[in-house]
Design brief:
Length: 114
């Protein structure tokens, strides 16, 4: 009986000692690594003005507008989409690493049951 009590006390001391160490993690916060500005798209280009009221825009102006619109789409699709995916994965990793000791232990126990 005495050895079980001593073992329980030793386990409690180890848990308390380890819980203090788990709070400090050397990870960079997601906002510092992947700022929101990198995960937002460029603004749409402005529609060119008409030469005079009631007159159509020139073909050159329409072509320049479409080129700028296509460039904004490509920027958003290629660059920003990739950054957003990387940021989402890092946020998931950051959240998992910054959880407390008991929360991680509980999650491990719950995952083992599945």
């Amino acid at each position: 009986m005495r050895s079980k009590l001593a073992l329980a006390f030793a386990m409690a001391c180890i848990v308390v000692a380890l819980s203090g160490c788990a709070a400090t993690v050397g990870l960079i916060p997601p906002e510092n690594l992947y700022p929101k500005i990198l995960t937002t798209c460029a603004d749409d280009p402005k529609v060119p003005p008409r030469p005079a009221p009631g007159q159509p825009r020139t073909d050159t102006a329409k072509a320049a507008y479409l080129k700028d619109l296509h460039s904004a789409f490509n920027d958003c699709h290629d660059t920003v989409g990739g950054w957003a995916d990387r940021r989402a994965l890092y946020v998931k990793q950051y959240d998992a690493q910054t959880k407390g000791y008991f929360t991680r232990l509980w999650d491990a126990i719950m995952d083992a049951d599945e």
